[in-house]
Amino acid sequence: MASLDPYSPSDGVQVDLPELKARNVLFVSDAEGNSVLIGSFLNTTDATLVAQLETMDSNGEVVFTDITIPAEGKFDLGYNGTEGKRLFLTELPGSMHPVYIRAGGDPTEMLVPILDGTLEEYRPFID
């Protein structure tokens, strides 16, 4: 049965800001809590955009990641030759972890899923 409700067919979360679209944002984590944040970010403006991701690791340290996205372009965090953001999380796979995204305005909270390496496409991130 098809749905008429729009949805994002991915494992990660999506967020739409006026200047920026975040797609398939997720953590991949191993059994020890070594985790990597990955996702894709699309700039909807005609100028280069600097966005910032902010989260807290399980040691209580605030972790920032700045990403530069070309005009009307895309930046893949953890894909296509870029490294994902590595940090330590004690939450188990299946949990959600807050990440704040900002692109010129106030930060927006994303509740990002934590996955393990069960799915083959995520194993390289934790090997």
Structural commentary:
3% of the residues lie in helices and 50% in strands. By secondary structure, it is mainly beta. The chain has one domain: C2 domain (Immunoglobulin-like). Strands 1, 2, 3, 4, 5, 6, 7, 8 and 9 form a 9-stranded mixed β-sheet that branches. A hairpin with a 5-residue loop joins β8 (96-102) and β9 (108-115). The radius of gyration is 15 Å and the shape is globular. It starts with 12 loop residues before the first strand and ends with a helix. The model has no long low-confidence stretch (mean pLDDT 92).
In short, what is this structure?
The protein is mainly β. Helices cover 3% and strands 50% of the residues.
β content, as a range? over 45%
Largest sheet: 9 strands, mixed
What do the pLDDT scores average to?
92
| CATH homologous superfamily caption | C2 domain
Instruction: For the record, give the distance between the C-alpha atoms at the N and C termini, rounded to a whole number.
Output: 38 Å
The CATH class assignment is Mainly Beta
Spans with pLDDT under 50 lasting ≥5 residues? none
What Rg, in angstroms, do the CA atoms define?
A: 15 Å
Q: Give the helix tally.
A: 1
What's the total number of strands?
A: 9
Indicate the CATH topology.
Immunoglobulin-like
